[in-house]
Protein backbone atom coordinates (compact mmCIF):
# COMPACT_ATOMS: atom_id res chain seq x y z
CA UNK A 1 0.00 0.00 0.00
CA UNK A 2 1.19 3.53 -0.76
CA UNK A 3 0.77 6.01 2.05
CA UNK A 4 -0.08 8.78 -0.41
CA UNK A 5 -3.27 6.86 -1.27
CA UNK A 6 -4.32 5.90 2.25
CA UNK A 7 -6.70 7.72 4.54
CA UNK A 8 -4.17 7.49 7.31
CA UNK A 9 -4.84 10.33 9.69
CA UNK A 10 -1.97 10.14 12.15
CA UNK A 11 -2.17 12.62 14.99
CA UNK A 12 0.66 14.29 16.92
CA UNK A 13 -1.51 14.78 19.97
CA UNK A 14 -3.57 12.15 21.75
CA UNK A 15 -7.21 12.77 22.61
CA UNK A 16 -7.48 13.70 26.27
CA UNK A 17 -10.26 11.21 27.03
CA UNK A 18 -8.39 8.44 28.82
CA UNK A 19 -5.08 7.92 30.50
CA UNK A 20 -4.73 4.56 28.82
CA UNK A 21 -1.73 4.55 26.49
CA UNK A 22 -3.13 1.97 24.05
CA UNK A 23 -6.21 4.08 23.36
CA UNK A 24 -4.15 7.22 22.72
CA UNK A 25 -1.78 5.35 20.42
CA UNK A 26 -4.55 3.61 18.48
CA UNK A 27 -6.26 6.93 17.81
CA UNK A 28 -2.95 8.66 17.01
CA UNK A 29 -1.89 5.85 14.65
CA UNK A 30 -5.21 6.05 12.79
CA UNK A 31 -6.36 2.57 13.88
CA UNK A 32 -9.71 3.48 15.44
CA UNK A 33 -12.04 6.47 15.42
CA UNK A 34 -14.77 7.12 17.95
CA UNK A 35 -18.39 7.17 16.74
CA UNK A 36 -20.10 7.53 20.12
CA UNK A 37 -19.42 6.46 23.69
CA UNK A 38 -18.24 2.82 23.54
CA UNK A 39 -18.64 2.65 19.75
CA UNK A 40 -15.71 2.77 17.32
CA UNK A 41 -14.88 2.51 13.64
CA UNK A 42 -11.86 0.53 12.58
CA UNK A 43 -9.82 2.45 10.00
CA UNK A 44 -7.81 0.63 7.25
CA UNK A 45 -4.80 -0.06 9.50
CA UNK A 46 -7.09 -1.22 12.31
CA UNK A 47 -9.04 -3.47 9.96
CA UNK A 48 -5.76 -5.07 8.84
CA UNK A 49 -4.62 -5.78 12.42
CA UNK A 50 -7.99 -7.23 13.38
CA UNK A 51 -7.77 -9.44 10.26
CA UNK A 52 -4.27 -10.59 11.26
CA UNK A 53 -5.33 -11.38 14.83
CA UNK A 54 -8.34 -13.30 13.50
CA UNK A 55 -6.10 -15.32 11.17
CA UNK A 56 -3.69 -16.11 13.98
CA UNK A 57 -6.60 -17.38 16.09
CA UNK A 58 -8.06 -19.38 13.18
CA UNK A 59 -4.71 -21.14 12.66
CA UNK A 60 -4.62 -22.10 16.32
CA UNK A 61 -8.24 -23.33 16.26
CA UNK A 62 -7.48 -25.47 13.22
CA UNK A 63 -4.73 -27.24 15.17
CA UNK A 64 -7.38 -28.61 17.56
CA UNK A 65 -9.76 -29.50 14.70
CA UNK A 66 -12.29 -26.84 15.60
CA UNK A 67 -14.55 -25.85 12.71
CA UNK A 68 -15.49 -22.25 11.99
CA UNK A 69 -19.16 -21.40 11.70
CA UNK A 70 -21.14 -18.20 11.42
CA UNK A 71 -24.05 -17.85 13.79
CA UNK A 72 -26.97 -15.55 13.05
CA UNK A 73 -26.97 -12.25 14.92
CA UNK A 74 -30.68 -12.82 15.63
CA UNK A 75 -31.62 -15.07 18.54
CA UNK A 76 -35.36 -15.85 18.76
CA UNK A 77 -36.81 -15.00 22.19
CA UNK A 78 -38.28 -18.48 22.54
CA UNK A 79 -34.86 -20.17 22.13
CA UNK A 80 -33.74 -18.57 25.38
CA UNK A 81 -37.07 -18.74 27.14
CA UNK A 82 -37.62 -22.45 26.42
CA UNK A 83 -34.43 -23.29 28.30
CA UNK A 84 -35.28 -21.00 31.19
CA UNK A 85 -31.67 -19.99 31.14
CA UNK A 86 -31.85 -16.24 31.17
CA UNK A 87 -28.57 -14.75 32.23
CA UNK A 88 -27.74 -11.69 34.28
CA UNK A 89 -26.33 -10.05 31.15
CA UNK A 90 -29.81 -10.02 29.65
CA UNK A 91 -30.27 -6.42 30.74
CA UNK A 92 -27.28 -5.53 28.55
CA UNK A 93 -28.66 -7.03 25.35
CA UNK A 94 -30.30 -5.32 22.40
CA UNK A 95 -33.73 -6.53 21.33
CA UNK A 96 -35.78 -6.05 18.22
CA UNK A 97 -39.13 -7.02 16.72
CA UNK A 98 -39.58 -7.81 13.01
CA UNK A 99 -42.60 -6.81 10.91
CA UNK A 100 -44.46 -9.98 11.90
CA UNK A 101 -44.05 -9.09 15.59
CA UNK A 102 -41.50 -11.84 16.17
CA UNK A 103 -39.05 -10.89 18.93
CA UNK A 104 -35.28 -11.35 18.75
CA UNK A 105 -32.22 -10.63 20.83
CA UNK A 106 -29.54 -9.10 18.60
CA UNK A 107 -25.81 -9.76 18.52
CA UNK A 108 -25.31 -10.99 22.07
CA UNK A 109 -23.00 -13.86 22.96
CA UNK A 110 -25.59 -16.37 24.14
CA UNK A 111 -24.66 -20.03 24.48
CA UNK A 112 -27.99 -21.41 23.30
CA UNK A 113 -27.62 -20.85 19.52
CA UNK A 114 -24.34 -22.80 19.46
CA UNK A 115 -25.77 -25.66 21.48
CA UNK A 116 -28.89 -25.67 19.28
CA UNK A 117 -26.71 -26.08 16.16
CA UNK A 118 -24.93 -29.14 17.52
CA UNK A 119 -28.06 -30.58 19.10
CA UNK A 120 -29.73 -30.62 15.67
CA UNK A 121 -26.78 -32.28 13.88
CA UNK A 122 -25.31 -34.76 16.37
CA UNK A 123 -27.25 -37.90 17.26
CA UNK A 124 -24.68 -40.56 18.16
CA UNK A 125 -21.56 -40.95 20.29
CA UNK A 126 -19.80 -41.85 17.01
CA UNK A 127 -20.02 -38.18 15.97
CA UNK A 128 -18.41 -36.91 19.17
CA UNK A 129 -16.26 -35.07 20.19
CA UNK A 130 -16.97 -32.08 18.00
CA UNK A 131 -15.73 -28.52 18.24
CA UNK A 132 -17.13 -25.36 16.62
CA UNK A 133 -16.08 -21.74 16.83
CA UNK A 134 -17.04 -18.35 15.48
CA UNK A 135 -15.28 -15.02 15.25
CA UNK A 136 -18.03 -12.44 15.06
CA UNK A 137 -19.16 -9.01 16.19
CA UNK A 138 -21.03 -9.06 19.47
CA UNK A 139 -23.07 -6.15 20.66
CA UNK A 140 -23.85 -5.39 24.24
CA UNK A 141 -25.39 -2.33 25.88
CA UNK A 142 -22.35 -1.80 28.09
CA UNK A 143 -23.51 0.76 30.68
CA UNK A 144 -20.02 2.06 31.46
CA UNK A 145 -17.82 1.92 28.35
CA UNK A 146 -14.19 2.69 29.17
CA UNK A 147 -10.64 2.67 27.81
CA UNK A 148 -11.62 2.72 24.12
CA UNK A 149 -12.06 -0.77 22.66
CA UNK A 150 -11.12 -2.47 25.95
CA UNK A 151 -14.67 -2.07 27.28
CA UNK A 152 -16.98 -1.16 24.42
CA UNK A 153 -20.51 -1.79 23.21
CA UNK A 154 -19.46 -3.65 20.06
CA UNK A 155 -16.54 -6.01 19.72
CA UNK A 156 -15.15 -8.95 17.75
CA UNK A 157 -15.18 -12.11 19.80
CA UNK A 158 -13.98 -15.69 19.56
CA UNK A 159 -16.59 -18.13 20.85
CA UNK A 160 -15.65 -21.80 20.88
CA UNK A 161 -17.85 -24.72 21.98
CA UNK A 162 -16.59 -28.27 22.40
CA UNK A 163 -18.97 -31.22 22.85
CA UNK A 164 -17.94 -34.56 24.34
CA UNK A 165 -19.77 -37.76 25.15
CA UNK A 166 -17.93 -38.11 28.43
CA UNK A 167 -17.26 -35.71 31.31
CA UNK A 168 -13.73 -37.04 31.93
CA UNK A 169 -12.63 -36.63 28.32
CA UNK A 170 -14.21 -33.22 28.29
CA UNK A 171 -12.21 -32.14 31.35
CA UNK A 172 -8.99 -33.45 29.81
CA UNK A 173 -9.67 -31.49 26.62
CA UNK A 174 -9.49 -28.26 28.62
CA UNK A 175 -5.68 -28.66 28.62
CA UNK A 176 -5.66 -28.45 24.80
CA UNK A 177 -7.71 -25.26 24.95
CA UNK A 178 -5.34 -23.78 27.54
CA UNK A 179 -2.43 -24.54 25.19
CA UNK A 180 -4.27 -22.78 22.36
CA UNK A 181 -4.91 -19.73 24.53
CA UNK A 182 -1.30 -19.63 25.73
CA UNK A 183 -0.04 -19.94 22.18
CA UNK A 184 -2.30 -17.09 20.99
CA UNK A 185 -1.14 -14.80 23.80
CA UNK A 186 2.50 -15.77 23.30
CA UNK A 187 2.34 -15.00 19.57
CA UNK A 188 0.69 -11.66 20.36
CA UNK A 189 3.60 -10.98 22.78
CA UNK A 190 1.20 -10.72 25.70
CA UNK A 191 2.28 -11.62 29.20
CA UNK A 192 -0.82 -13.39 30.50
CA UNK A 193 -1.85 -14.82 33.86
CA UNK A 194 -4.01 -17.95 34.03
CA UNK A 195 -6.15 -18.38 37.14
CA UNK A 196 -7.24 -21.66 38.72
CA UNK A 197 -10.72 -21.08 37.31
CA UNK A 198 -9.24 -20.73 33.77
CA UNK A 199 -9.68 -17.01 33.35
CA UNK A 200 -6.85 -15.21 31.60
CA UNK A 201 -5.69 -11.71 32.58
CA UNK A 202 -2.87 -9.24 32.17
CA UNK A 203 -1.67 -7.29 35.18
CA UNK A 204 -2.38 -3.59 34.70
CA UNK A 205 -2.37 -0.74 37.24
CA UNK A 206 -5.56 0.72 35.72
CA UNK A 207 -7.36 -2.64 35.43
CA UNK A 208 -10.79 -2.73 37.02
CA UNK A 209 -10.59 -6.46 37.70
CA UNK A 210 -8.41 -8.06 40.37
CA UNK A 211 -6.40 -11.24 40.65
CA UNK A 212 -5.44 -12.78 43.98
CA UNK A 213 -1.87 -14.13 43.74
CA UNK A 214 0.14 -16.25 46.17
CA UNK A 215 3.88 -16.12 45.55
CA UNK A 216 4.54 -19.14 47.78
CA UNK A 217 2.43 -21.76 45.99
CA UNK A 218 1.44 -20.00 42.75
CA UNK A 219 -2.29 -19.84 43.55
CA UNK A 220 -3.95 -17.34 41.22
CA UNK A 221 -7.63 -16.55 41.21
CA UNK A 222 -10.07 -13.89 40.12
CA UNK A 223 -10.96 -11.83 43.20
CA UNK A 224 -14.64 -12.33 42.37
CA UNK A 225 -14.39 -16.03 43.20
CA UNK A 226 -11.17 -16.29 45.22
CA UNK A 227 -11.41 -17.88 48.65
CA UNK A 228 -9.08 -17.73 51.66
CA UNK A 229 -8.02 -19.85 54.62
CA UNK A 230 -10.68 -19.54 57.30
CA UNK A 231 -9.72 -18.39 60.76
CA UNK A 232 -9.73 -21.09 63.45
CA UNK A 233 -12.95 -21.50 65.35
CA UNK A 234 -13.15 -19.35 68.49
CA UNK A 235 -13.53 -21.53 71.57
CA UNK A 236 -14.82 -18.96 74.07
CA UNK A 237 -17.98 -19.95 75.95
CA UNK A 238 -21.20 -18.58 74.56
CA UNK A 239 -22.49 -15.77 76.76
CA UNK A 240 -26.17 -14.92 77.08
CA UNK A 241 -27.45 -12.67 74.32
CA UNK A 242 -28.28 -9.18 75.45
CA UNK A 243 -30.07 -6.22 73.86
CA UNK A 244 -28.21 -2.96 74.43
CA UNK A 245 -28.96 0.67 73.70
CA UNK A 246 -26.75 2.14 70.95
CA UNK A 247 -28.43 5.44 70.10
CA UNK A 248 -27.23 7.18 66.91
CA UNK A 249 -24.67 4.50 66.09
CA UNK A 250 -25.58 3.27 62.65
CA UNK A 251 -22.25 2.31 61.10
CA UNK A 252 -19.75 -0.31 62.13
CA UNK A 253 -17.10 2.39 62.64
CA UNK A 254 -19.40 4.33 64.99
CA UNK A 255 -20.10 1.12 66.92
CA UNK A 256 -16.41 0.25 67.10
CA UNK A 257 -15.55 3.64 68.52
CA UNK A 258 -18.50 3.50 70.98
CA UNK A 259 -17.25 0.17 72.34
CA UNK A 260 -13.60 1.10 71.91
CA UNK A 261 -12.84 -1.92 69.78
CA UNK A 262 -12.28 -2.85 66.09
CA UNK A 263 -14.86 -3.65 63.36
CA UNK A 264 -14.07 -7.38 63.23
CA UNK A 265 -15.95 -7.93 66.52
CA UNK A 266 -19.19 -6.96 64.76
CA UNK A 267 -21.21 -8.58 62.05
CA UNK A 268 -23.01 -6.49 59.45
CA UNK A 269 -26.20 -7.35 57.64
CA UNK A 270 -26.58 -5.87 54.17
CA UNK A 271 -30.00 -6.01 52.55
CA UNK A 272 -30.44 -6.48 48.79
CA UNK A 273 -33.37 -6.80 46.43
CA UNK A 274 -32.60 -9.69 44.09
CA UNK A 275 -35.17 -10.84 41.53
CA UNK A 276 -37.67 -8.76 43.55
CA UNK A 277 -36.99 -10.82 46.69
CA UNK A 278 -35.41 -9.50 49.89
CA UNK A 279 -32.00 -11.11 50.42
CA UNK A 280 -29.91 -10.25 53.49
CA UNK A 281 -26.18 -10.99 53.47
CA UNK A 282 -24.10 -11.17 56.66
CA UNK A 283 -20.33 -10.61 56.69
CA UNK A 284 -17.85 -9.73 59.42
CA UNK A 285 -17.84 -6.00 60.29
CA UNK A 286 -14.53 -5.20 58.57
CA UNK A 287 -15.52 -7.09 55.40
CA UNK A 288 -17.30 -6.17 52.19
CA UNK A 289 -19.89 -8.37 50.52
CA UNK A 290 -18.68 -9.98 47.28
CA UNK A 291 -21.75 -9.46 45.13
CA UNK A 292 -20.57 -11.91 42.46
CA UNK A 293 -20.50 -14.71 45.02
CA UNK A 294 -24.01 -13.72 46.14
CA UNK A 295 -25.26 -13.74 42.53
CA UNK A 296 -23.63 -17.11 41.89
CA UNK A 297 -25.31 -18.55 44.97
CA UNK A 298 -28.76 -17.19 44.05
CA UNK A 299 -28.44 -18.25 40.37
CA UNK A 300 -30.47 -16.94 37.39
CA UNK A 301 -30.24 -13.36 38.61
CA UNK A 302 -32.36 -11.02 36.49
CA UNK A 303 -32.35 -7.98 38.79
CA UNK A 304 -29.89 -7.11 41.55
CA UNK A 305 -29.70 -3.97 43.66
CA UNK A 306 -29.12 -2.73 47.20
CA UNK A 307 -32.49 -2.47 48.95
CA UNK A 308 -34.03 1.00 49.02
CA UNK A 309 -34.78 2.70 52.36
CA UNK A 310 -38.42 1.67 52.28
CA UNK A 311 -37.52 -2.01 51.87
CA UNK A 312 -34.95 -1.82 54.67
CA UNK A 313 -37.53 -0.21 56.98
CA UNK A 314 -40.02 -2.95 56.10
CA UNK A 315 -37.52 -5.78 56.62
CA UNK A 316 -36.08 -4.47 59.90
CA UNK A 317 -39.07 -2.56 61.32
CA UNK A 318 -36.46 0.09 62.16
CA UNK A 319 -34.53 3.04 60.76
CA UNK A 320 -31.51 2.41 58.53
CA UNK A 321 -28.42 1.21 60.40
CA UNK A 322 -29.91 -1.33 62.81
CA UNK A 323 -30.35 -4.41 60.59
CA UNK A 324 -29.58 -7.82 62.06
CA UNK A 325 -30.52 -11.49 61.54
CA UNK A 326 -32.92 -11.88 64.45
CA UNK A 327 -36.60 -11.29 63.53
CA UNK A 328 -35.58 -9.96 60.11
CA UNK A 329 -38.29 -10.14 57.44
CA UNK A 330 -36.40 -11.49 54.45
CA UNK A 331 -36.82 -14.21 51.83
CA UNK A 332 -33.23 -15.45 52.12
CA UNK A 333 -30.53 -14.92 54.75
CA UNK A 334 -27.01 -15.61 53.49
CA UNK A 335 -24.40 -16.03 56.22
CA UNK A 336 -20.69 -15.88 55.47
CA UNK A 337 -19.00 -19.05 56.77
CA UNK A 338 -16.57 -16.98 58.83
CA UNK A 339 -19.44 -15.91 61.09
CA UNK A 340 -20.20 -19.49 62.12
CA UNK A 341 -16.68 -19.60 63.67
CA UNK A 342 -17.07 -16.38 65.66
CA UNK A 343 -18.24 -16.17 69.27
CA UNK A 344 -20.28 -13.52 71.08
CA UNK A 345 -20.44 -10.94 68.32
CA UNK A 346 -22.66 -7.91 67.94
CA UNK A 347 -25.43 -7.40 65.37
CA UNK A 348 -28.21 -4.87 64.75
CA UNK A 349 -31.41 -5.58 66.74
CA UNK A 350 -33.92 -4.56 64.03
CA UNK A 351 -35.01 -1.88 66.49
CA UNK A 352 -34.00 1.75 66.12
CA UNK A 353 -31.21 2.60 68.57
CA UNK A 354 -30.48 -0.98 69.65
CA UNK A 355 -28.01 -3.79 68.97
CA UNK A 356 -27.68 -7.32 70.33
CA UNK A 357 -24.39 -8.33 71.94
CA UNK A 358 -23.09 -11.85 72.53
CA UNK A 359 -24.85 -13.26 69.49
CA UNK A 360 -23.87 -16.71 68.23
CA UNK A 361 -24.68 -18.51 65.01
CA UNK A 362 -27.00 -21.51 65.34
CA UNK A 363 -28.03 -20.71 68.92
CA UNK A 364 -29.56 -17.30 68.00
CA UNK A 365 -30.19 -17.49 64.25
CA UNK A 366 -29.54 -19.65 61.21
CA UNK A 367 -29.30 -19.04 57.48
CA UNK A 368 -27.70 -20.31 54.29
CA UNK A 369 -23.98 -20.57 55.03
CA UNK A 370 -21.42 -19.99 52.28
CA UNK A 371 -18.54 -17.80 51.11
CA UNK A 372 -19.94 -14.31 50.51
CA UNK A 373 -16.99 -12.09 51.43
CA UNK A 374 -14.53 -10.09 49.41
CA UNK A 375 -10.96 -11.29 50.01
CA UNK A 376 -8.39 -8.67 51.07
CA UNK A 377 -4.60 -8.68 51.32
CA UNK A 378 -4.95 -9.38 55.06
CA UNK A 379 -6.31 -12.84 54.18
CA UNK A 380 -4.22 -15.95 53.72
CA UNK A 381 -3.87 -18.19 50.65
CA UNK A 382 -6.58 -20.89 50.62
CA UNK A 383 -4.05 -23.47 49.40
CA UNK A 384 -0.90 -22.93 51.47
CA UNK A 385 -1.96 -20.40 54.12
CA UNK A 386 0.77 -17.87 53.23
CA UNK A 387 0.34 -14.17 52.43
CA UNK A 388 -1.40 -13.12 49.23
CA UNK A 389 -1.34 -9.99 47.13
CA UNK A 390 -4.09 -8.59 44.98
CA UNK A 391 -3.14 -7.26 41.56
CA UNK A 392 -5.18 -4.93 39.33
CA UNK A 393 -5.81 -6.70 36.06
CA UNK A 394 -7.65 -6.68 32.74
CA UNK A 395 -9.45 -9.79 31.49
CA UNK A 396 -8.26 -11.46 28.28
CA UNK A 397 -10.47 -14.50 27.91
CA UNK A 398 -11.86 -17.52 29.70
CA UNK A 399 -12.51 -21.24 29.44
CA UNK A 400 -15.60 -22.60 31.16
CA UNK A 401 -16.51 -26.20 31.79
CA UNK A 402 -20.30 -26.06 31.43
CA UNK A 403 -20.47 -29.84 31.96
CA UNK A 404 -24.02 -31.03 31.23
CA UNK A 405 -26.03 -28.16 32.76
CA UNK A 406 -26.95 -26.52 29.45
CA UNK A 407 -27.39 -29.76 27.54
CA UNK A 408 -29.79 -31.05 30.20
CA UNK A 409 -31.83 -27.83 30.02
CA UNK A 410 -31.86 -27.83 26.23
CA UNK A 411 -32.18 -31.58 25.79
CA UNK A 412 -28.93 -31.68 23.79
CA UNK A 413 -28.52 -35.46 23.93
CA UNK A 414 -26.87 -38.29 21.97
CA UNK A 415 -27.17 -42.07 21.96
CA UNK A 416 -24.27 -43.83 23.70
CA UNK A 417 -22.78 -47.24 22.82
CA UNK A 418 -25.68 -49.03 24.54
CA UNK A 419 -28.27 -46.92 22.71
CA UNK A 420 -29.01 -44.90 25.83
CA UNK A 421 -29.79 -41.20 25.61
CA UNK A 422 -27.24 -38.99 27.41
CA UNK A 423 -26.60 -35.24 27.70
CA UNK A 424 -23.44 -33.91 26.01
CA UNK A 425 -20.60 -32.42 28.08
CA UNK A 426 -19.87 -28.88 26.92
CA UNK A 427 -16.85 -26.58 27.21
CA UNK A 428 -17.01 -22.92 26.21
CA UNK A 429 -13.96 -20.74 25.50
CA UNK A 430 -14.03 -17.07 24.56
CA UNK A 431 -11.71 -14.17 23.80
CA UNK A 432 -12.74 -10.53 23.28
CA UNK A 433 -10.55 -9.85 20.24
CA UNK A 434 -10.87 -6.05 20.28
CA UNK A 435 -9.69 -6.03 23.86
CA UNK A 436 -6.87 -8.42 22.95
CA UNK A 437 -5.80 -5.98 20.23
CA UNK A 438 -5.77 -3.05 22.68
CA UNK A 439 -3.82 -5.11 25.22
CA UNK A 440 -1.24 -6.04 22.57
CA UNK A 441 -0.65 -2.30 22.15
CA UNK A 442 -0.74 -1.81 25.92
CA UNK A 443 2.14 -4.28 26.33
CA UNK A 444 4.00 -3.47 23.10
CA UNK A 445 4.73 0.23 22.75
CA UNK A 446 7.36 2.84 23.58
CA UNK A 447 7.27 6.63 23.83
CA UNK A 448 7.24 6.97 20.03
CA UNK A 449 4.42 4.62 19.19
CA UNK A 450 3.29 1.04 18.73
CA UNK A 451 5.81 -1.82 18.42
CA UNK A 452 3.68 -4.49 16.72
CA UNK A 453 4.61 -8.15 17.12
CA UNK A 454 5.43 -9.55 13.67
CA UNK A 455 2.53 -11.99 13.95
CA UNK A 456 -0.17 -9.30 13.82
CA UNK A 457 1.56 -6.15 12.49
CA UNK A 458 -0.64 -4.30 9.94
CA UNK A 459 2.47 -3.94 7.75
CA UNK A 460 5.66 -5.98 8.00
CA UNK A 461 7.89 -3.40 6.33
CA UNK A 462 7.69 0.34 5.75
CA UNK A 463 9.84 1.81 2.97
CA UNK A 464 10.60 5.53 3.21
CA UNK A 465 11.99 7.79 0.52
CA UNK A 466 13.75 10.47 2.61
CA UNK A 467 13.51 13.33 0.10
CA UNK A 468 10.34 13.53 -1.94
CA UNK A 469 11.90 15.79 -4.58
CA UNK A 470 14.84 13.42 -5.14
CA UNK A 471 13.73 11.35 -8.13
CA UNK A 472 16.41 8.67 -7.68
CA UNK A 473 15.38 8.10 -4.06
CA UNK A 474 11.71 7.95 -4.96
CA UNK A 475 12.32 5.55 -7.82
CA UNK A 476 14.55 3.24 -5.76
CA UNK A 477 12.06 3.25 -2.89
CA UNK A 478 9.28 2.28 -5.28
CA UNK A 479 11.41 -0.52 -6.78
CA UNK A 480 12.12 -1.93 -3.32
CA UNK A 481 8.42 -1.67 -2.50
CA UNK A 482 7.42 -3.56 -5.67
CA UNK A 483 10.08 -6.21 -5.12
CA UNK A 484 9.00 -6.91 -1.52
CA UNK A 485 5.35 -6.89 -2.52
CA UNK A 486 6.02 -9.49 -5.22
CA UNK A 487 7.47 -11.72 -2.49
CA UNK A 488 4.14 -11.63 -0.66
CA UNK A 489 5.43 -9.28 2.04
CA UNK A 490 2.99 -6.78 3.49
CA UNK A 491 4.77 -3.52 2.74
CA UNK A 492 3.89 0.14 3.08
CA UNK A 493 5.57 2.82 0.95
CA UNK A 494 5.76 6.31 2.40
CA UNK A 495 5.75 8.27 -0.87
CA UNK A 496 4.15 11.39 0.61
CA UNK A 497 5.47 14.87 0.00
CA UNK A 498 6.53 15.26 3.63
CA UNK A 499 9.78 15.97 5.47
CA UNK A 500 11.86 12.93 6.43
CA UNK A 501 11.31 13.74 10.12
CA UNK A 502 7.53 13.51 9.73
CA UNK A 503 7.85 10.18 7.92
CA UNK A 504 10.09 8.71 10.63
CA UNK A 505 7.67 9.84 13.34
CA UNK A 506 4.72 8.25 11.54
CA UNK A 507 6.69 5.05 10.90
CA UNK A 508 7.42 4.75 14.63
CA UNK A 509 3.80 5.50 15.49
CA UNK A 510 2.38 2.92 13.03
CA UNK A 511 4.94 0.43 14.32
CA UNK A 512 5.84 -1.79 11.34
CA UNK A 513 8.57 -4.19 12.55
CA UNK A 514 11.06 -3.26 9.76
CA UNK A 515 11.90 0.20 8.36
CA UNK A 516 13.92 0.69 5.17
CA UNK A 517 15.01 4.24 4.38
CA UNK A 518 16.25 5.28 0.96
CA UNK A 519 18.42 8.37 1.52
CA UNK A 520 21.77 9.97 0.64
CA UNK A 521 23.80 6.74 0.61
CA UNK A 522 21.87 5.53 -2.37
CA UNK A 523 24.87 6.83 -4.42
CA UNK A 524 26.91 3.96 -2.85
CA UNK A 525 24.11 1.49 -3.47
CA UNK A 526 23.16 1.45 0.25
CA UNK A 527 19.93 1.93 2.19
CA UNK A 528 19.20 2.12 5.92
CA UNK A 529 17.73 -0.93 7.63
CA UNK A 530 16.18 -0.56 11.09
CA UNK A 531 14.03 -2.70 13.32
CA UNK A 532 11.22 -1.00 15.24
CA UNK A 533 12.18 -2.68 18.51
CA UNK A 534 15.87 -1.78 18.22
CA UNK A 535 17.66 1.60 17.90
CA UNK A 536 20.47 0.29 15.65
CA UNK A 537 20.49 1.61 12.10
CA UNK A 538 22.38 -0.55 9.64
CA UNK A 539 23.53 0.41 6.15
CA UNK A 540 22.92 -2.51 3.82
CA UNK A 541 23.38 -3.12 0.09
CA UNK A 542 20.25 -2.75 -1.97
CA UNK A 543 20.89 -6.23 -3.36
CA UNK A 544 20.76 -7.71 0.16
CA UNK A 545 17.38 -6.27 1.13
CA UNK A 546 15.32 -9.26 0.09
CA UNK A 547 17.37 -11.79 2.06
CA UNK A 548 17.69 -9.49 5.07
CA UNK A 549 13.94 -8.82 5.26
CA UNK A 550 12.98 -12.48 4.83
CA UNK A 551 15.43 -13.71 7.44
CA UNK A 552 14.23 -11.06 9.88
CA UNK A 553 10.55 -11.92 9.33
CA UNK A 554 11.14 -15.64 9.77
CA UNK A 555 13.28 -15.21 12.87
CA UNK A 556 11.49 -16.14 16.09
ZN1 LIG B 1 -0.41 -20.24 48.45
What topology emerges from the helices and strands here?
Elements: H1 21-28, E1 32-36, E2 39-42, H2 44-63, E3 67-68, E4 74-76, H3 77-82, E5 94-97, E6 103-106, H4 112-121, E7 130-139, E8 154-164, H5 167-187, E9 193-194, E10 199-203, E11 209-213, E12 220-222, E13 242-245, H6 252-258, E14 267-274, E15 277-284, H7 291-298, E16 304-306, H8 309-316, E17 332-336, E18 345-348, E19 354-359, E20 368-370, E21 389-403, H9 405-410, E22 413-415, E23 421-423, E24 425-432, H10 433-443, E25 445-446, E26 449-450, E27 461-465, H11 471-486, E28 491-494, H12 500-510, E29 514-518, E30 526-531, E31 537-541, H13 545-554
Parallel strand pairs: 3-7, 15-17, 17-20, 27-28, 27-29
Antiparallel strand pairs: 1-2, 4-6, 5-6, 7-8, 8-24, 9-10, 10-21, 11-12, 11-21, 13-19, 14-15, 14-16, 18-19, 21-24, 22-23, 25-26, 29-30, 30-31
Helix pairs in contact: 1-10, 2-5
The protein binds zinc ion.
Zinc ion is lined by residues 214, 216-217, 219, 381, 383-384, 386.
* Corresponding CATH architecture of the largest domain: 2-Layer Sandwich
Helix content: 25-40%
Structure class: alpha+beta
Distance from first to last alpha carbon: 26 Å
Low-confidence stretches: 85-89
CATH fold title of the largest domain: BirA Bifunctional Protein, domain 2
Give the count of structural domains.
3
